[in-house]
Design a protein that fits this description.
With 307 residues, the protein is α+β, with helices and mostly antiparallel strands. It has five helices and 15 strands. 29% of the residues are buried.
Length: 307
Amino acid sequence: MQRRLLLTTVLALTALSAGAESPMRPYPSGASRIGGLMNISIVDRTSGAELPIYRHRGEYWVAGRPGARYAIRARNAMGERIMAVMSVDGVNVVTGETAGVGQNGYVFGPRERSDIAGWRKSDSQIAAFEFAAAGNSYASRTGRPDDVGVIGVAMFRERRPEPPPPVVTPHPSRDEYSNSSRERRSEAPPAPSSMGDARAKAAPPAGSAGNADMAAESSAGAMARQSAPSPSLGTAHGRRETSYVGKTTFERASSQPDEVIRIRYDSRENLVAAGVIPVPQRWPRPSGPSPFPGSDPGYVPDPPARY
């Protein structure tokens, strides 16, 4: 089995809870969390608010602010361990490799939640995720600019140990039963010492305790962009921060992810220009006299006094 990272950061204690969602649910524009096995959202670390997630032409989008630090907030919605391989701009957030679903990731215990706030530098440090111009992104600076502007989470269930086959005890034949019965009747009663020996030997099968332990362990394991008014966004390699992790083992139930979340991002100006974020339509003023030339609230005032 391969070694995987298990989150132990203090940030996990401050993550928001979220209800489990169906992987196929058509999330409305303006939702803040998506996902089935895990609830995924993007958090503005300055305000602490989860950014609205907009659905446009089959894709999910969030609007970022240049210079703002953010985190990928993840909560395991299942009662079993889930491994999440995460990428930003096509780069694995743990190893820095060009991202692939077969790479290392974070392991979340049942219902566990945490904020993944940066590029993993060591067992105790990260470099913060920070929205920046695409040319200043970590991916661009390391020669991989093609996938700037996307966040991905590939989720895997854990392989569970198969219980051993039940022990089948053959039933004796009628002749064997009759012979053994006659032999027992012909034997003399055992001496007290031999009775004690017989009781000592009448222990449960050797495999029964192992089967119980294995069952307990198994249960516990249990948008094309239009002309943009502002530069496109990427994720920079931000300042160093303290963040601790430990290591654990995790065997995937399948080599293919059980669920993949993809969230694209850009500046609000660009998303408005591309039609991702709807803009309220203003009522057009008609030509000629207007029946509603003003909008001040109140009641009908008295007319001015005549001269």
